[in-house]
Design goal:
By secondary structure, the chain is α/β, with parallel strands linked by helices. The protein is built from 12 helices and 13 strands.
Length: about 350
């Protein structure tokens, strides 16, 4: 029903407008009691799906990637579709509108999306207020810097978000890999990244009970840069990696919108994201956990990432193209392998 009726209807409208409409629709269904119905349809509960990672217990290994619920407005409702965890953000210290519209583009022929949203969000304090109502959804907090903050002051933005969110998220993700904030990816270079992560880790270790810190990396890093990432993780002793963010590559893309600036996500990223996971896992001798994301549009795509070395997976573009049944299909496929 989703792919034959709902998706064609939604895809006939502007992507960003339909995103906000979908939020309103999901919220409405939740208010009239459909949450339990969605859970009965999509949620797969089985002890064999549970994962212990970073000192946390994930009810299943399929999460929602950052960028979908930037401001923590819908995490409770989205969890009814069977996600094992929800990652909110990217949030920044101050509210910012993001880049000029249009900034979100479908590439239907490629089952992909290009976005240049630019960390549009209402600021970390508003996200905190919404997260105070959380009871049982496992939440990741994806943090970044404001567009106007120069790179040599970026660490302060990450500290502000880290401290504000600390009591309200279960793990942190340091996002230095979005291509849509000017000069952000320069923070992936070895020295600035080591300094940033070490600063956050020092603050983390000073807490009574620390929280896991993960690094989200771009799929466009070279092998040498990926080896640097492994070394940085060893040095700073952060808890893991999310591989990968969107790509600036347009290799093999046929859709007309391929000329749009921004980060590409979806099926064209499947192979590269899996390759990055495998490289990090093998070269580090599985020294740290990896959350695999990028081009998961089927249960088999998810299984390949798990086989490559991922401990958990996340969906975004695949969730939009395939619908919530994809979460159930992945969890069922994992159970059927055992």
């Amino acid at each position: 029903m989703y792919k034959t009726i709902i998706r064609p209807l939604f895809f006939s409208f502007d992507p960003e407008k339909i995103h906000h409409f979908t939020f309103s629709l999901i919220r409405f269904f939740h208010k009239i009691g459909f949450g339990s119905i969605f859970r009965s349809i999509y949620k797969v509960e089985n002890p064999k799906l549970e994962r212990e990672l970073f000192g946390l217990k994930f009810p299943n290994p399929v999460g929602l990637a950052a960028g979908f619920d930037k401001d923590a407005k819908l995490y409770k409702e989205l969890s009814n579709f069977g996600f094992g965890f929800i990652e909110i953000g990217t949030v920044t210290p101050k509210p910012q509108p993001g880049n000029d519209k249009p900034r979100l583009f479908r590439l239907k022929e490629d089952s992909a999306i290009i976005n240049r949203m630019g960390f549009n969000n209402g600021g970390v304090e508003k996200a905190v207020e919404r997260l105070k109502d959380n009871e049982n959804v496992l939440i990741g907090g994806n943090i970044g810097k404001n567009k106007i903050t120069p790179n040599d002051e970026a660490v302060n933005d990450y500290i502000i978000c880290f401290e504000a969110l600390f009591d309200y998220v279960d793990y942190f993700v340091v996002n230095v890999s979005s291509p849509n904030t000017p000069n952000l990816r320069a923070l992936q270079e070895k020295k600035p990244l080591t300094d940033l992560l070490q600063t956050l880790q020092d603050r983390n270790n000073s807490k009574e009970k620390r929280k896991p810190i993960l690094l989200k990396i771009a799929p466009d890093l070279t092998d040498e840069q990926l080896l640097d990432i492994i070394e940085i993780i060893e040095t700073t002793k952060i808890d893991g990696v999310i591989a990968t963010n969107t790509t600036i590559s347009r290799e093999g893309i046929s859709s007309e919108n391929k000329k749009e600036m921004g980060g590409l996500s979806g099926k064209p990223l499947t192979e590269r994201a899996t390759g990055v996971i495998r490289f990090l896992s093998e070269k580090s001798n599985k020294a740290f956990p990896i959350i695999g994301v990028g081009g998961i549009h089927s249960a088999n795509d998810a299984l390949e990432k798990l086989d490559a070395g991922a401990s958990l997976v996340q969906l975004y573009t695949g969730f939009i193209y395939e619908g919530p049944v994809l979460i159930k299909q992945i969890n069922k496929a994992i159970l059927n392998r055992k």
